[in-house]
């Protein structure tokens, strides 16, 4: 119980939101890969495929959190995260046409795991960034956040998608979160953080009289993602009309 009380629930909330927004494709992949399985094997295919995908993703995120300590890698990851956030707002392409169904359990499981591995690059970077900025218990936060969000993705994907369609602000908020993480990620890179701390110490501060922590580069990152995504969406709407 003490462990749960000491967890960073803000970071867990970020990880869950990221998983839902960027991991919603998992439900589609699982459905497509298992659609030809016999009824008595379909549940096994879903469960084992999901378990394999979760295990691989946790390993990848654990490596990613460690690699983020390499100089300049956070800058690259932060720029990529900005692009992922903009893409989340601006793109609606269907990328699942090449997911093959199978009537064999192991083949379906392999399809789910491989497809999740290929599609999880954005998710891994975003979750690693959220966990890395959270401080202690990074891997525990990742595992807990993923374990909570995966059932939502698999069994509640229809509800989540309907909520996103009805309240687009959820997607905008999620994309802004990615931009927020990206801004903080870039300026905390070990190659530039000492120079920034010495020359621009006011970039990170507490609002007087409150416990609210403000990171200006993170806010700039969120604004860049939301503003760019809005402009690109408007351009797409004009082109389609």
Tell me the layout of helices and strands.
Layout: H1 2-6, H2 9-23, H3 25-34, H4 39-67, H5 73-90, H6 105-119, H7 121-132, H8 138-155, H9 157-166, H10 169-187, H11 193-199, E1 204-206, E2 213-215, H12 216-240
Antiparallel strand pairs: 1-2
Describe, in plain words, how this protein is organized in 3D.
- The chain has 241 residues and is mainly α.
- It has one domain.
- Helix content is 76%, strand content 2%.
- The chain is built from twelve helices and two strands.
- The chain has helices at 2-6, 9-23, 25-34, 39-67, 73-90, 105-119, 121-132, 138-155, 157-166, 169-187, 193-199, 216-240; strands at residues 204-206, 213-215.
- A two-stranded antiparallel sheet has the order 1-2.
- Helix 4 (39-67) runs parallel beside helix 6, helix 4 packs across helix 7 and helix 4 (39-67) packs antiparallel against helix 8 (138-155).
- The longest helix is centred in the first third of the chain and has 29 residues, at 39-67.
The gyration radius over C-alpha positions equals: 19 Å
Mean pLDDT: 76
The gross shape turns out to be globular
Say how many strands there are.
2
Following the backbone from N to C, one meets helices and strands in this order, namely HHHHHHHHHHHEEH
How many distinct domains? 1
Percentage of residues in helical conformation: over 70%
Distance between the termini: 55 Å
Number of helical segments with 4 or more residues: 12
């Amino acid at each position: 119980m003490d462990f749960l009380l000491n967890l960073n629930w803000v970071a867990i909330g970020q990880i869950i939101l990221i998983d839902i927004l960027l991991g919603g494709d998992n439900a589609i992949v699982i459905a497509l890969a298992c659609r030809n399985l016999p009824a008595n094997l379909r549940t096994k295919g879903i469960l084992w495929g999901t378990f394999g995908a979760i295990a691989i993703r946790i390993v990848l995120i654990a490596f990613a959190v460690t690699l983020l300590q390499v100089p300049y890698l956070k800058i690259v990851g932060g720029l990529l995260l900005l692009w992922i956030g903009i893409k989340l707002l601006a793109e609606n392409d269907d990328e699942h046409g090449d997911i093959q169904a199978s009537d064999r359990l192991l083949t379906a499981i392999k399809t789910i795991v491989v497809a999740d591995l290929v599609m999880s690059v954005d998710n891994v970077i975003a979750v690693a960034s959220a966990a890395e900025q959270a401080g202690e218990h990074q891997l525990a936060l990742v595992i807990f956040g993923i374990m909570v969000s995966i059932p939502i993705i698999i069994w509640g994907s229809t509800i989540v998608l309907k909520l996103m369609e009805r309240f687009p602000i959820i997607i905008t908020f999620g994309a802004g979160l990615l931009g927020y993480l990206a801004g903080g990620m870039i300026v905390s890179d070990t190659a530039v953080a000492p120079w920034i701390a010495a020359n621009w110490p006011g970039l990170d501060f507490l609002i007087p009289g409150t416990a609210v922590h403000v990171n200006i580069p993170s806010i700039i990152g969120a604004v860049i993602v939301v503003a760019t995504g809005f402009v690109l969406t408007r351009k797409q709407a004009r082109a389609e009309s």
